[in-house]
Structure to design on (364 residues):
């Protein structure tokens, strides 16, 4: 699999001559500016039903236009753009007519019913992210503070989060694979049965996959009622509902329980302010059993791997997203170490996954 293909062939730019460095810089910035073409193309195809149609059967532009009620030439332009972004494949028939196909894996992530569907991400962007990014300059001018003047965490609403929660399910499988491996290397669990608390569980997929990985594990997911409905439905879909319980509550104030063998926090700390993150660490410690493990999955910056590593570059951009959408951020491993220490915990492992790091901690 390739990452996103470049759209500028910088090898053809002159390496010397008048203004060569400026021309190179302009091409680089321009390539960033036209990145908005990709969601424009994908969202248009989603709205028109292109993915549903091609997920059923391959089609030519004229066939697809007739099916969707769109203009044939314009449909062809959109399909060629999808091909340029490697969303669809194309094949030229003997008569010279181009046919388009959508691979099964791509069809699943672009279908609203797929376990790893990205349609929720599209909905979230429309409800919140697009307008939020337009206001980034204002956020930089003013910062993100509450009425008391304290730095605020992210204020995404339940309604907005409902769209996003399943749209980021695809992050889970590689994370759970590495988390499961790391837990086994640490000798966890020490008994055949174990209890897990999933704080801010979202769709519950991390719990569900861990329940599949560890047959003796049971889990409690805490979130708001609107989101827990999604988690319960998904636990039934994945066959783990008998070991997945839910708690409709506020993890910042409600009693989290005691003596859990594993406390899991996925994409929770980046929603916090620095102060609220420290308080959350203390609440996590109170819910942890004496030999329990805390697993934090988040955008954790670790400059020991190089400030411009793939992970750290993504995490720094992610922090900007948090600023744009209401607060929070991407914090450093030193920040986490300080919060953990103040809660009587200490880090025992830090594991890389494709777009996150997994930090494991236990009692000091």
């Amino acid at each position: 699999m390739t990452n996103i293909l470049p759209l500028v062939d910088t090898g053809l730019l002159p390496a010397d001559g008048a203004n060569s460095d400026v021309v190179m810089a302009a091409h680089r910035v321009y390539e960033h500016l036209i990145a908005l073409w990709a969601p424009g193309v994908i969202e248009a195809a989603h709205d028109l039903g292109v993915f549903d149609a091609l997920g059923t059967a391959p089609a030519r532009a004229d066939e697809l236009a007739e099916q969707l009620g769109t203009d044939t030439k314009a449909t062809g332009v959109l399909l060629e753009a999808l091909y340029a972004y490697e969303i669809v494949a194309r094949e030229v028939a003997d008569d010279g007519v181009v046919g388009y196909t959508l691979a099964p894996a791509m069809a699943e992530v672009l279908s609203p019913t797929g376990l790893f569907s990205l349609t929720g991400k599209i909905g979230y962007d429309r409800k919140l992210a697009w307008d939020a990014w337009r206001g980034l300059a204002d956020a930089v001018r003013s910062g993100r503070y509450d009425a008391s003047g304290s730095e605020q965490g992210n204020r995404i609403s339940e309604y907005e989060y409902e769209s996003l929660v399943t749209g980021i399910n695809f992050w889970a499988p590689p994370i759970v694979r590495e988390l499961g491996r790391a837990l086994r290397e640490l000798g966890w669990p020490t008994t055949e049965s174990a209890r897990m608390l999933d704080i801010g569980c979202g769709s519950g997929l991390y719990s569900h996959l861990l329940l599949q990985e560890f047959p003796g594990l049971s889990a409690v997911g805490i979130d708001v009622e609107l989101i827990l409905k999604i988690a319960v439905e998904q636990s039934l879909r994945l066959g783990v509902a008998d070991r997945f319980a839910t708690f409709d509550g506020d993890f910042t104030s409600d009693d989290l329980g005691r003596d859990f063998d594993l406390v899991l926090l996925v994409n929770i700390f980046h929603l916090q302010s620095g102060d609220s993150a420290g308080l959350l660490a203390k609440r996590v410690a109170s819910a942890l059993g004496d030999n329990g493990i805390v697993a934090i999955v988040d955008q954790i910056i670790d400059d020991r791997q190089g400030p411009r590593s793939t992970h750290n570059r993504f995490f720094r951009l992610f922090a900007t997203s948090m600023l744009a959408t209401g607060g929070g951020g991407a914090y450093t491993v030193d920040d986490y170490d300080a919060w953990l220490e103040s809660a009587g915990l200490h880090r025992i492992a830090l594991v890389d996954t494709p777009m996150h790091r997994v930090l494991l901690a236990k009692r000091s």
Notes: The chain is about 45% helix and 15% strand. The chain has two domains: 1-108, 168-363.
